[in-house]
Amino acid sequence: MYVKLFLKNIKIIDARIGTVFSFVEYEYQKTIIFFLRACIFEKKYILPSQTLLISTGILIKRSDQLYKYSITYLKDMKKKYGLVIGNPLNIMNSFSSFFELKISLWNCGKYKVYINPGLKIARLFISLK
């Protein structure tokens, strides 16, 4: 029910989303949850203590005050790869037009980590305020 309301503020800019990369959403009470994927065209790597800005292939319009947007990390990314997102539990409330959503990944592990196209990197929560 809420998916259509929330999706009016999201534009997919990478044609692979929904075809090559699944764009799965979950509805829980008045919240929609999307897995954000690395929309890159070739494998990239992040050295220890380095960061990399990764495109998610979507634009978000943040013009009305009805919705709250937040990004959270995936526990498996930290546990399996030693990766965390920059500014975890990021709440986005100050944007007035469409902007491309990118995720900053930080390698806090000891080894070089490869990021493959389509890798799940974070979750986007959209809820009514």
From TrEMBL:
<dbReference type="InterPro" id="IPR029054">
    <property type="entry name" value="dUTPase-like"/>
</dbReference>
<feature type="domain" description="dUTPase-like">
    <location>
        <begin position="42"/>
        <end position="125"/>
    </location>
</feature>
<dbReference type="InterPro" id="IPR036157">
    <property type="entry name" value="dUTPase-like_sf"/>
</dbReference>
<protein>
    <submittedName>
        <fullName>Deoxyuridine 5'-triphosphate nucleotidohydrolase, partial</fullName>
        <ecNumber>3.6.1.23</ecNumber>
    </submittedName>
</protein>
<dbReference type="GO" id="GO:0004170">
    <property type="term" value="F:dUTP diphosphatase activity"/>
</dbReference>
<keyword id="KW-0378">Hydrolase</keyword>
<dbReference type="Pfam" id="PF00692">
    <property type="entry name" value="dUTPase"/>
</dbReference>
